[in-house]
Amino acid sequence: MDPLVGLVLCLSCLLLLSLWKQSSGKGKLPPGPTPLPIIGNMLQLDVKNISKSLSNLSKIYGPVFTVYFGRKPTVVLHGYEAVKEALIDQAEEFSGRGSFPLVEKANKGREGIIFNTGNGWKEMRRFSLMTLRNLGMGKRSIEDRVQEEAHCLVELLRKTNASPCDPTFILGCAPCNVICSIIFQNRFDYKDHNLINIMEMFDENVRILSSPWIQLCNNFPVLLDYFPGSHNNILKNLSNVRSYIMEKTREHQVSLDINNPQDFIDYFLIKMEQEKHNPQSVFTLENLAIVVSDFLGAGTETTSTTLRYALLLLLKHPEVLAKVQEEVDRVVGRNRSPCMKDRSSMPYTDAMVHETQRYIDLIPNNLPHAVTCDIKFRNYLIPKGTTIVTSLTSVLHDDKEFPNPEKFDPRHFLDEKGNFKKSDYFMPFSAGKRMCAGEGLARMELFLFLTTILQKFTLKPVVNPKDIDVTPIVNGFASVPPPYQLCFVPV
């Protein structure tokens, strides 16, 4: 037999065997494109924009379909009805966390809160939510902290002297300091090298996580162990952040007053002492470092990126900026700080904040979920542990709920009379049991930081608004806005 013919026959047999193994013994998975051995459907996906690829596939296979990121099947839910049916109507069954190999490598099998699953995750999330409430989440005390930070932010912006500046670092400091005050009790001076280092490491991590290389690494984990690449920068940055957290924890252990806990670390250390005789306890120093780094990362980058994108969109749309500033001047004035009570009297500003979150579609494909048991879903049988991708893009950019969804328009959240209009399709924080634990804080920060900035400054672009590009520079894990400069002109 000709060697070439033999090779073709062998490859054909491998392909048929692979397809048979992928289709047998795994329940009745939804339809999807035919996968190739080992690489699955990767050739049919644009790793620079997975969300767009999934939208295109949904036009062929419908709102529920299967793709293979490598050798493992992933069920994709596209559109509001499918996402709601899973994350809200069957919240418990879809509350698992899907595989994220890079983070799993960084966590070394230990518990966290974002990428953890099972009973350990439930216990840690319950403790964290209770502790955040004890520390003022949802109360006036946390609003005072955000207002204080907004004042510091304004003072830093004044020092730019209305000169062109890149707002990335400045807008990152404020939300980072708020979450630091909750975790460590104290905020940082904006020149503190620890704050600067934390900001730089998380900013770099988000950019790398959204790159095509990391999309490949998460689907082919062997790359993480045997190939050099930017994933090593993420691992190094996370290690450095957690080393700093352990340093602060040792300081807390010395000063701890169990009758008067001051911050998240104090509460965690007290819980550790209570659980010290439980060999299965998830409350360990190693897990504390992971949970705190989860809070720092999620509490800093998502809010700062949204703030940065909001200012860019306002520069691009001066007519929206003018309406927001008119409302701020009319409701708040110039002599007092904006507060959350003002929001009900500021429907256009509230709509602008919501529209920013909808339009930028910060986490296009959500974090991966997994089903916690064998489950029947729309006449398909999805086996326990199967990874679930929920397309938040398909919800936030639904053209029936939001006419012209690719256009930035606060009227998407206003009724005919100009009153604020809620939408069930507004899911930037996800939905169900895996919904962002810091949603309330993030909403407060976005409203108060933006209104305070617009109360004190006029935003001046350095180029013609028509020439401003708002297209994200990467669109993998997160949508990262392009770098830009602007002038903060005092009013």
UniProtKB/TrEMBL annotation:
Signal sequence, renumbered to the chain: 1-25
Domain of life: Eukaryota
Listed GO CC annotations: endoplasmic reticulum membrane; mitochondrial inner membrane
UniProt keywords, alphabetically: Endoplasmic reticulum, Fatty acid metabolism, Heme, Iron, Lipid metabolism, Membrane, Metal-binding, Microsome, Mitochondrion, Mitochondrion inner membrane, Monooxygenase, NADP, Oxidoreductase, Signal
Membrane topology: Peripheral membrane protein
Pathway(s) this gene product operates in, as recorded in its UniProt entry: Lipid metabolism; fatty acid metabolism
Reactions mediated catalytically: an organic molecule + reduced [NADPH--hemoprotein reductase] + O2 = an alcohol + oxidized [NADPH--hemoprotein reductase] + H2O + H(+); (4Z,7Z,10Z,13Z,16Z,19Z)-docosahexaenoate + reduced [NADPH--hemoprotein reductase] + O2 = 21-hydroxy-(4Z,7Z,10Z,13Z,16Z,19Z)-docosahexaenoate + oxidized [NADPH--hemoprotein reductase] + H2O + H(+); (5Z,8Z,11Z,14Z,17Z)-eicosapentaenoate + reduced [NADPH--hemoprotein reductase] + O2 = 19-hydroxy-(5Z,8Z,11Z,14Z,17Z)-eicosapentaenoate + oxidized [NADPH--hemoprotein reductase] + H2O + H(+); dodecanoate + reduced [NADPH--hemoprotein reductase] + O2 = 11-hydroxydodecanoate + oxidized [NADPH--hemoprotein reductase] + H2O + H(+)
Swiss-Prot/TrEMBL cofactor(s): heme
Family annotation (InterPro entries): Cyt_P450, Cyt_P450_CS, Cyt_P450_E_grp-I, Cyt_P450_E_grp-I_CYP2E-like, Cyt_P450_sf, Cytochrome_P450_fam2
Compartment(s): Endoplasmic reticulum membrane; Microsome membrane; Mitochondrion inner membrane
Regulation of protein activity: The omega-1 hydroxylase activity is stimulated by cytochrome b5.
Residues binding heme: C436
GO biological process: fatty acid metabolic process; xenobiotic metabolic process
GO molecular function annotation: heme binding; Hsp70 protein binding; Hsp90 protein binding; iron ion binding; oxidoreductase activity, acting on paired donors, with incorporation or reduction of molecular oxygen, reduced flavin or flavoprotein as one donor, and incorporation of one atom of oxygen
E.C. number(s) listed in UniProt: 1.14.13.n7, 1.14.14.1
Self-association state and partner proteins as the record states: Interacts with chaperones HSP70 and HSP90; this interaction is required for initial targeting to mitochondria.
The family this protein is said to belong to: Belongs to the cytochrome P450 family.
Record function comment: A cytochrome P450 monooxygenase involved in the metabolism of fatty acids. Mechanistically, uses molecular oxygen inserting one oxygen atom into a substrate, and reducing the second into a water molecule, with two electrons provided by NADPH via cytochrome P450 reductase (NADPH--hemoprotein reductase). Catalyzes the hydroxylation of carbon-hydrogen bonds. Hydroxylates fatty acids specifically at the omega-1 position displaying the highest catalytic activity for saturated fatty acids. May be involved in the oxidative metabolism of xenobiotics.
Name listed for the protein in its UniProt record: Cytochrome P450 2E1
